[in-house]
Amino acid sequence: MPPPRTRGTALRHRLAELRGPDVPAKALDARALAALAANPGCRRRAILDGAGVNKAALAGALGSPSAFGQSQFAFMRGNAFEARVKADGGADLLRLAHEKLDPAAEPPVHARVPELSAIGPEGRAARTALALREAVEAGGWTLLDHPMLALDVAGSPAFLEPDAVVVHPDGGWTVVEIKSFPMLDGSADPAKVGAAARQAAVYVLALEEVAARMAPAPPVRHQVLLVCPKDFSNLPTASAVDVRKQRAVTRRQLTRLTRIEDIADALPEGTCFSPELPADRLTAAVESVPATYAPECLSACELAFHCRERSRARGAVTSLGRSVRAELGGLTTVGDVLAAARGEAGDPDDPAVAALRRAAHLRAEALGRQHPDNPGDERPFDQGHPQTPHQRAASPEAARCR
Asked: Containing H/E element for 172?
């Protein structure tokens, strides 16, 4: 008799079935986790990421390929810059960490760079935890190059690999993010810095789980070291980035995620997301999991184009943005919004309905002034009567002014 499956083994087997036979799992990285935490209500992304489904291949099989992702040129440039930063035992990186984060400590002259290789992600995570413990006990500076960290996400472990972690002489730990976008005159693109901070916040959370298993727990610094090329050169420079806000938001959003086994249990029997399936069966499998689309998904998820098409077909107001969705309360479709604005549906005491009707009244008045010959014309602005400069000069209003 085979041994009974434990809960963890059964979940892994179920996720492998969802992924498809002989389909390797795609690792859930910090970038994907940050995007998932930014949209915790999307069960579709949660189950696909939890099962290790390649969403880019899935989007292509659905007929909605996405251009989301890093170009090959940017990928190669980033790898070359990271190798430059970590050359000579990470001397430049440690110098920047000492300069930007811990100038009062002794200079990192004889820093340790432990070997972190092991079999499998679980083995590498265990080796990383041991190396962190040894670094704290030894004191001095230690550089961990591409350590492996584990973070529980909706009941399933996610293995994360930051660019580096620095252990300070006082035992504190700092996450290092190495990016290939330039830092001009000491500052970089705020949008790119924000994305890097959200990604680093995931690593900080994973490091805190490692520290919590040690006694006493070493401090995990909430200032991460962002290393970028200086101006337009290949020389590294760095800046300390406070990620306390991003860490708090990410922790709260990850806590709100529905557990993956609960989503898997609600799926129809035989559901599979393998890109090798026929298009109709694959579409039915994807549509069996509810999604929460928002325009922000276009820059964070490979399935964004597919979900946007379906959202627009249903007339969902979420396709207009989360802020619009929040303002409309219980009105979830564009049809409901238009009916409420025209007075055909909706509770007049509802603030959203009252605001829509007031807006519709003001719009009708504005269109009436724009079109005095047809005051009842309530066509949308983009279907009005645009006038050329010659037509405006010949209009009755212009004649009266003259």
From this structure: none
